[in-house]
């Protein structure tokens, strides 16, 4: 089979080469011209003009539009923005040019169909307007790119004539042209060049890559559009933002690249994914953008980022309406790479190996610090040291602290068979590695000819975790192939296959949820004086609190294997001119298998015997689960496009249906016969089994109409009639329309005064309605029973019990989202500067929430119904600059965005501030205003704090503002009318998100620098890693708490220490509210491309090596953030995100 495929590829390559050579021959024959055709001269052609104070460039365009002449000139020497005036009827072009020559000090010479423009200073007496019949000149040369690589197929022609040719496979060309003619060298993706032919016979040209993006094609719903003709709010990026970076998922690569695309990396766990949001808070029930890969919903966290060709984000209703029910909060369209026409297959290899280090690593108090803290706290409260730290105990801790060879535990004088712990352990260092590896390898092959093209890739990702005591590994395998075959001139078929498999082994959890996935390996209950081992070598134990080193090493594991396979078949027909019909059918089978296994962990007496087992590990058990999802998608759509004079129209209509069938099964058994073998057949305990099934479907018909008049006035209508099985039949279907308008101001006649500066100026306006079907469960309108076994015996058995269903609303229906958007797009200075600005409002109505309170006698909770509204307003800005010279190319891209959300309808009769209420700004943080720390007992007792904290007030306690002036500090009754001394002290909504990307290329070197951040955000860190030491003596104490108040340290950050009961410290307040704004150097990559002369000796087309870093540096307002919380996360309890430093290479054959 492999030999057959290779023979076919070689045959394709030969056919492509021969075809290309034949095309060159025909092109030369068709474009060749041996003489000057008969044409009118400038004194024979007459025009009528009425120009007042118009630019020279506008004058040229006016003449060209009314005649067959084309102006040729050198951009650097002719001032195109100088103004002229001329108003004459039926006058020859010759006379017109004489008039303009007098106003501008220019001379004009007609050479065939061209009018060549030159400067003509006043002191010269050269004739200002002339007609020349010049001798033919044989011109030869070579066309190359900036790296010196030959460019085949470059068009070399005289504008307005049939004289021209194309460069051959080596970039060479030859052409006979009249002397004085202007040759234009043009090639897709490169800037055209104009050269005036004098008497030179050899003209070699270096073409530079195109800077501008006016002709950029953007993927939209079920089609593409030129960016310059878009009327909706659409942003796009190309594959370059994802390539050559040590990233494991698309979210990491997109963060900060598109304005108001908000991406959160909630965890740094191997294989951890990102969450996406478009334009801010969506609904009180949640909601996320619809993410489509080649028109099909897919889990992007499983996709190889190197397979991505482009990404478009549809932000407003006008752009997203065609996707209906799931597109209320934006659409992310991902297009994967496909084959390309080439004379031979192109093979690419890339590898990247990285070292990861945690950005934030928790550090707890050491043994002496904790002992000092607890003793100080207890002496302040009870007048004596903490009860555990007797004199003997303290001596033992100090002895080991000063001399680690001293015992880390000793027998309890009161019970000689129980250990007391006197160690000094840095648990974070014991549990978390300082660095851990990651590597990624990709291979791809692409090619094709006029009928067949292909792209195939393989990817392997290997990632280790931060846990020092557990061998955590994540492996991902990706295979993708895109094949397209042109059967006839009017029929084309395609196949896309994507296989994404992943394997993850990570620490087990337990019934008390001590070790949830996505959390830091460090646990909040590990004290500094607790050793890892007792002096006899057994694992140290402390009642029911787990020794985490023992747990990670001995307890067991969790395994998760995902097999995700996508098959897509497509058929494209063009039965008649300007009409295309598409059929696409996709089948997805996703199978997830999990194994959760843990065994009993013993605790030990002093004599080495087992004192018992940790209760959360006893009995040992194994649980196996299987999730099987089958997803089917049918898309059928057709479009028609045509031009009638100045009217361009495009009509598209189609049908979409999607079905999801989910199945779940699990089994569990306790008491393993052999603890180290997690097989159910080897267990003898009780069995538990369960299963579940659910289905879901949507069906919709959609249409889009585009109208473009004269390149100036743009209109687009989108509509979708959508139905979802999540709603009752009577409310299942709804129609969601949108309308958008655009005005290309730069194409207006009156814009001529600015057209030498502006390449494009466009105004956009859109309005649309969308539905949101993101409701809990697949059957929210059906009253469903639940069943289970009860926990007491009846006839020596636990009987099955069926529970009555709760109340449901019979009128449950869509949340509706209405969006308004106004935007402007600009490109200036020959496409060097581009900018886009949008302002929007999104109204989410009929959000699902509880209904009116029901009488208590009913003994049922309120059903959910459509009874709440939300308003979100915001803006987003994108500005880019591109510049290049012969050796240097550089660019800067800035994104900036902001949004706020407000509840406009919600049933909260009492006005509880703990719930939503009308007028509430989403993200509000209510809390107390802290005024300082009391320096005396009298100052601490000046106000009554009994409603906030039950302890006796003393010097070192926090002071709060009495906002309601009642002489006491209290929460009131927690309502808007009586919030007590609480007020809105902050907001956790990220404000003013920004990103700045700079890329430079100098000769063979390239440098990418990317900064990203948030300018305003408040967070309240409510976790045991932060202030938990004030509420429970069993919590580990953050090392930061060592900066506590004493008479000798009156300016401390923290109040006096407490053993427990510090509810005033952990109450939300201004003192410990954190400023989570940040600026982060997200990426820095330095690359070098080896010279062609060197790589071609080794039969390689290109070799590039690079070094790169991710999350390299940051600055933030969080207090001592490296020990507290990453600004992108909400506390040190989560698995830390990491810095990556990598080395990589790209090789093309």
UniProtKB/TrEMBL annotation:
This is SusC/RagA family TonB-linked outer membrane protein. GO terms for cellular component: cell outer membrane. It is a multi-pass membrane protein. Its main location: membrane. It comes from the Bacteria. Belongs to the TonB-dependent receptor family. InterPro entries: Beta-barrel_TonB, Beta-barrel_TonB_sf, CarboxyPept-like_regulatory, Plug_dom, Plug_dom_sf, TonB-dep_OMP_SusC/RagA, TonB-dep_OMP_SusC/RagA_CS, TonB-dep_rcpt-like. Residues 227-331 form the TonB-dependent receptor plug domain. It comes from Cyclobacterium qasimii. Residues 525-1112 form the TonB-dependent receptor-like beta-barrel domain. It is found in: Cell outer membrane. Keywords: Cell outer membrane, Membrane, TonB box, Transmembrane, Transmembrane beta strand, Transport.
């Amino acid at each position: 089979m492999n030999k057959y495929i290779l023979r076919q590829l070689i045959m394709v390559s030969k056919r492509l080469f021969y075809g290309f050579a034949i095309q060159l021959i025909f092109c030369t024959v068709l474009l060749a011209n041996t003489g000057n055709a008969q044409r009118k001269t400038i004194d024979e052609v007459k025009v009528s003009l009425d120009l007042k104070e118009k630019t020279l460039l506008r004058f040229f365009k006016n003449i060209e539009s009314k005649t067959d002449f084309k102006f040729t000139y050198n951009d650097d020497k002719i001032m195109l923005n100088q103004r002229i005036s001329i108003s004459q009827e039926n006058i020859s072009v010759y006379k017109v040019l004489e008039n303009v020559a007098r106003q501008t000090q220019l001379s004009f010479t007609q050479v065939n169909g061209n009018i060549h423009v030159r400067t003509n200073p006043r002191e010269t007496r050269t004739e200002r307007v002339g007609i020349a019949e010049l001798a033919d000149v044989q011109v030869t040369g070579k066309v190359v790119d900036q790296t010196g690589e030959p460019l085949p197929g470059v068009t070399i022609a005289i504008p307005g004539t049939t004289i021209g040719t194309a460069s051959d496979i080596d970039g060479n060309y030859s052409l006979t042209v009249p002397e004085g003619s202007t040759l234009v060298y043009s090639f897709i993706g490169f800037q055209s060049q104009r050269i005036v032919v004098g008497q030179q016979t050899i003209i070699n040209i270096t073409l530079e890559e195109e800077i501008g993006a006016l002709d950029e094609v953007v993927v939209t719903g079920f089609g593409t559009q030129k960016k310059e003709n878009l009327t909706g709010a659409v942003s796009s990026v190309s594959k370059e933002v994802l390539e050559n970076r040590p990233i494991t998922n698309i979210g990491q690569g997109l963060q900060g690249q598109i304005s108001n695309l908000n991406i959160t990396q909630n965890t740094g766990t191997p294989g951890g994914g990102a969450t996406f949001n478009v334009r801010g808070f969506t609904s009180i029930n949640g909601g996320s953008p619809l993410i489509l890969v080649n028109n099909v919903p897919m889990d992007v966290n499983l996709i190889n980022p190197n397979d991505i060709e482009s990404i478009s984000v549809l932000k407003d209703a006008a752009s997203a309406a065609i996707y209906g029910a799931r597109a209320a909060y934006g659409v992310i369209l991902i297009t994967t790479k496909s084959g390309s026409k080439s004379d031979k297959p192109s093979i690419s290899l890339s590898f990247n190996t990285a070292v990861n280090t945690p950005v934030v690593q928790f550090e707890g108090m050491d043994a002496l610090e904790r002992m000092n803290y607890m003793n100080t706290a207890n002496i302040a409260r009870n007048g004596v040291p903490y009860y555990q730290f007797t004199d003997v105990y303290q001596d033992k801790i100090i002895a080991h602290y000063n001399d680690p060879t001293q015992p880390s535990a000793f027998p309890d004088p009161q019970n000689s068979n129980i250990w007391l712990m006197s160690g000094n352990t840095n648990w974070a260092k014991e549990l978390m590695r300082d660095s851990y590896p990651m590597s990624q390898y990709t291979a791809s092959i692409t090619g094709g000819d006029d009928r067949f093209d292909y792209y195939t890739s393989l990817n392997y990702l290997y990632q280790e975790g931060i846990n020092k005591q557990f061998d955590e590994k994540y492996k991902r395998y990706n295979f993708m192939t895109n094949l397209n075959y042109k059967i006839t001139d009017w029929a084309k078929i395609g196949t896309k296959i994507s296989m994404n498999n992943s394997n993850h082994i990570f620490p087990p959890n337990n019934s008390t949820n001590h070790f949830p996935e996505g959390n830091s390996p460090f646990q909040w209950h590990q004290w500094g004086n607790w050793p890892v081992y007792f002096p006899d070598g057994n694992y140290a134990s402390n009642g029911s609190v787990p020794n985490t080193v023992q747990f990670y090493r001995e307890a067991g594991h969790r395994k998760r294997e995902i097999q995700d396979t996508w098959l897509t078949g497509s058929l494209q027909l063009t039965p008649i001119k300007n009409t295309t019909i598409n059929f696409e059918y996709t089948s997805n089978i996703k199978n997830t298998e999990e194994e959760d296994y843990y065994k009993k962990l013993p605790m030990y007496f002093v004599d080495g015997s087992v004192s018992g087992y940790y209760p959360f590990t006893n009995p040992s058990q194994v649980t196996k689960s299987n999730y099987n999802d089958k997803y089917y998608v049918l898309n059928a759509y057709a479009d028609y496009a045509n031009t009638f004079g100045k009217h361009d129209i495009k009509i598209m209509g189609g049908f979409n249906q999607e079905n999801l069938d989910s199945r779940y099964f699990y089994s569990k058994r306790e008491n393993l016969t052999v603890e180290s073998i997690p097989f159910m057949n080897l267990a003898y305990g009780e069995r538990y089994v369960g299963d579940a099934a659910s289905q879901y479907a949507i069906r919709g018909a959609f249409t889009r109409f585009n109208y473009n008049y004269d390149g100036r006035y743009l209109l687009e209508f989108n509509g979708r009639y959508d139905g979802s099985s999540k709603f009752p039949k009577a409310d299942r279907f709804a129609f969601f329309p949108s309308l958008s308008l655009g005005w290309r101001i730069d194409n207006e006649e009156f814009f001529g005064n600015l057209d030498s500066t502006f390449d494009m100026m466009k105004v956009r306006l859109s309005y649309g309605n969308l539905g949101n079907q993101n409701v809990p469960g697949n059957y929210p309108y059906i009253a469903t029973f639940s069943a289970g076994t009860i926990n007491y015996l009846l006839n020596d058995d636990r009987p099955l019990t069926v529970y009555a269903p709760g109340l449901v609303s019979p009128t449950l229906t869509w949340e509706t989202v209405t969006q308004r958007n106004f935007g402007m797009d600009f490109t200036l200075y020959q496409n060097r500067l581009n900018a886009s600005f949008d302002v929007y409002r999104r109204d989410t109505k009929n959000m699902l929430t509880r209904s009116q309170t029901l009488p208590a006698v009913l003994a049922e909770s309120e059903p959910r119904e459509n009874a709440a509204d939300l308003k979100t307003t915001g803006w987003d800005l994108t500005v880019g600059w591109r510049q290049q010279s012969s050796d240097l190319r550089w660019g800067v891209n800035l994104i900036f965005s902001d949004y706020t959300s407000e509840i406009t309808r919600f049933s909260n009769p009492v006005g509880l501030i703990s719930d939503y209420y009308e007028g509430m700004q989403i993200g509000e943080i209510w809390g107390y205003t802290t005024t300082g720390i009391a320096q005396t007992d009298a100052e601490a007792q000046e106000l009554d704090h009994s409603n906030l904290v039950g302890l006796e007030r003393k010097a070192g306690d926090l002071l709060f503002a009495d906002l309601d002036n009642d002489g006491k500090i209290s929460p009131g009754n927690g309502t808007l009318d009586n919030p007590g001394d609480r007020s809105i002290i902050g907001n956790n909504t990220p404000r003013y998100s920004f990103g700045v990307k700079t890329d430079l290329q100098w000769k063979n070197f390239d440098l990418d620098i990317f900064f990203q951040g948030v300018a305003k955000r408040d967070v309240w860190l409510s976790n045991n890693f932060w202030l938990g030491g004030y509420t429970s003596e069993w919590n580990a104490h953050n090392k930061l708490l060592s900066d506590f108040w004493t008479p000798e340290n009156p300016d401390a950050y923290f109040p006096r220490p407490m053993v427990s009961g510090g509810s005033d410290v952990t109450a939300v307040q201004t003192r410990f509210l954190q400023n989570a704004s940040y600026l982060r150097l997200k990426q820095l990559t330095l690359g070098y491309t080896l010279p062609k002369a060197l790589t071609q000796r080794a039969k390689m087309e290109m070799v590039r090596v690079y070094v790169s870093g991710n999350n390299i540096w940051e600055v933030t307002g969080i207090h001592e953030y490296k020990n507290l919380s990453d600004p992108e996360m909400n506390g040190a309890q989560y698995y830390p995100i990491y810095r990556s430093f990598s080395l990589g290479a790209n090789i093309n054959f």
